[in-house]
Amino acid sequence: MVTQSVRSARGRAEVIIAATRGVGAMEEEMHTDAKIRAEIGTGCSPRGPGCSLRHFACEQNLLSRPDGSASFLQGDTSVLAGVYGPAEVKVSKEIFNKATLEVILRPKIGLPGVAEKSRERLIRNTCEAVVLGTLHPRTSITVVLQVVSDAGSLLACCLNAACMALVDAGVPMRALFCGVTCALDSDGTLVLDPTSKQEKEARAVLTFALDSVERKLLMSSTKGLYSDSELQQCLAAAQAASQHVFRFYRESLQRRYSKS
Amino acid sequence: MAEPVSVAAEYLAGSRARAARTVLGQVVLPGEELLLPEQEDAEGPGGAGERPLSLNAGARSRVRVVCGPGLRRCGDRLLVTKCGRLRHKEPGSGCGGGVYWVDSQQKRYVPVKGDHVIGIVTAKSGDIFKVDVGGSEPASLSYLSFEGATKRNRPNVQVGDLIYGQFVVANKDMEPEMVCIDSCGRANGMGVIGQDGLLFKVTLGLIRKLLAPDCEIIQEVGKLYPLEIVFGMNGRIWVKAKTIQQTLILANILEACEHMTSDQRKQIFSRLAES
Lengths: 260, 275
What we know:
heterodimer; A: 260 residues; alpha+beta; Ribosomal Protein S5, domain 2; 5-stranded mixed beta sheet; 4-stranded antiparallel beta sheet; 27% helix; 30% strand; B: 275 residues; CATH 2.40.50.100; Ribosomal Protein S8, Chain: A, domain 1; 5-stranded mixed beta barrel; 4-stranded mixed beta sheet; Exosome complex component RRP46 (chain A)
């Protein structure tokens, strides 16, 4: 696998895709258009620092043990995901008519705590809505996520990595899903894909999981104070941004299959 | 707010179901819907308003299309459930619409009836062997499913042996069962795999590529050293050559040839043939 990292003028790391092993560096030019501008929301000034999604990069099939694996980068946030399944399940955990989906999230430092448990549950509920578990009853599908670096929008990055890893493992799904984070700061400016500094200073941080077929909402996790109309605005902004994420998925998977 | 509206409209336009014929050979993603050929005519430029009245209304001839791996029927359309290239095979005898399937790259095997696989015996309980085939459950193999086996003449199978057999029962609801005889009662190459040799794992796509008719890789490997080789559809390959070194070289070549182009492969073979 080939990955190169180039420090841009602003000091953000841009990591270049290598969707399959042994692919050359021709992917670089494909990723300059991954940076998107979505200027939506009240009071977003044209010279505002962040109405855009950060650079994406994704690498698949990088681990040899799991059945599927993917690494997803959004700006400086990076999550590594591995999927095992459909595999054997303990009799105490088996469900007679569908697959048992387990998600394990490990933070970068320290033991997993309550925050990780709640994020695991959110990711599991999203995956269960999308994975066709009835095709593999009495089996288990395990998604293991490892946080490599956290620079904001962690839950959205975990969702994206989990989706790419499930596709890599060949688990049957009825749609793809993606995660998008919005932050609302004190004067109502909407920022998509916030960095950790922007998340700390925001008055509300909202994360949505959207599916690829009709942009329906699969999961939402919000923190802070916001009004009903602001929620609708954030949801609309996230739905528009998810189009770019799905286009990125499509390009990444097409590149992977173009090798064979 | 005009931008998100136009963006949403562009997306929705793209999510309309496409005709399966136009997408053949392209990469399809989970969630896409594909139209079968007979439906395209109904939704084409003619439209419901201009179609002439047919005398036997309601008896539209249906073409029987088989939905292969990676596709599910959803209403009248095909829903893509795995990512990969869409393929189609015309029917041999002329009736029916052929088979559509998605060629995906996977490592985990799911048992399918009729597949020939290599399994490892993990347990012997009474009259049944439990064989690990790489799926979610171990398959069961009865001691009577070997050629020439009777209650008095039991086959010599120990825990840890390699077995080459085929599935007679393999569906999502039942435990998979395998046998080492074909429908006529003959072994036909199945049974316990002999001593020595090396078993290693590759992806399912590579096995399908190697088992395709006229695969160059196998012909070239055969010219290199005399060897015995068994391919299991569950991603396992057993290889045996005269010396351990040759066996290891063959195993490395087969594992690596998934990612090599044919030129690189020819270079490696020519280098090995010289030495």
